[in-house]
Specification:
There is one protein chain. It is built from eight helices and seven strands; from the N terminus they run βαβααβααβαβαββα. With 234 residues, it is an alpha/beta fold. Helix 2 crosses helix 7.
């Protein structure tokens, strides 16, 4: 399989869903992986199979390329992390200058576990929705971090792995625009209706840009990106 197959870190959020569509356009086969780590917004785990089914239903070409889904349990990450993503806490900045939504080591662990799974399946390309344009300052979302990790994984497994981050230099408005380019209005509508980016499990209030509390940093970024994209379209 190798270069013809990729493994997408798929959380059911806006970014990872756009990255999944991006991969389905480029690879002959695309598998997905998700992580249950005791996240406060665990509703995202329920949205994952629904989004995969909707993508297959709405995009026949992609359906033929969409491979297996994998879910790994990483409960120890929650046990070690005292953050607003793994505890009931107000969202705020910390003394480190990072928001308390930062889960230390999360993306490093996600990619390492993904690579371990991919290794046995002959997959050498990992895809993630991290970016350093519109983000909360998380150090494990930076390009330097992830490309250094790709080198370490490749050395540690004696196999050449690539970490692809299609959104690395793209803001949230650009992410909406990318969705439009990849799948037109049907993909944009799917993302609005079914993805979950909110840091809480809130899915009762439907806004123009989707569901969420409307107050957390993830909702703020998503709303801002949607509004900027809408203005750019006029």
């Amino acid at each position: 399989m190798g270069a013809t197959t990729s493994l997408v870190l798929f959380s059911a959020g806006q970014d990872s869903t756009v990255c999944l569509a991006w991969a389905l356009e480029r690879f002959a086969r695309v598998e997905t992986i998700g992580f249950a780590y005791g996240q406060r917004h665990s509703v995202e785990m329920a949205q994952r199979p629904l989004i995969r089914a909707k993508l297959a239903e709405g995009f026949p070409t992609w359906a033929a390329r969409l491979g297996e889904d994998h879910v790994l349990e990483l409960a120890a990450l929650s046990a070690m992390s005292d953050t607003a993503l793994t505890r009931q806490a107000e969202f705020q900045m910390t003394a480190t200058g990072l928001p308390n939504t930062f889960v230390p080591g999360r993306n490093l662990l996600f990619f390492t576990y993904a690579a371990a799974l991919a290794y046995g399946r002959g997959i050498r390309t990992l895809v993630g929705g991290m970016c350093e344009t519109d983000f909360s300052g998380y150090p494990d979302c930076r390009n330097d971090t992830l490309q250094t990790l790709a080198k370490a994984i490749s050395l540690g497994m004696a196999a050449q792995f690539a970490i692809e981050t299609p959104l690395m230099r793209t803001d949230k408005a650009g992410t909406w625009a990318m969705a439009q380019r990849l799948g037109g209005a049907p993909l944009v509508d799917l993302i609005v209706e079914h993805t979950h980016s909110c840091y809480t499990p809130e899915r009762t209030t439907r806004r123009a840009w989707g569901y969420g509390c409307g107050r957390c940093p993830a909702c703020a970024l998503r709303q801002k990106g949607w509004e900027k994209w809408q203005i750019g379209k006029t």
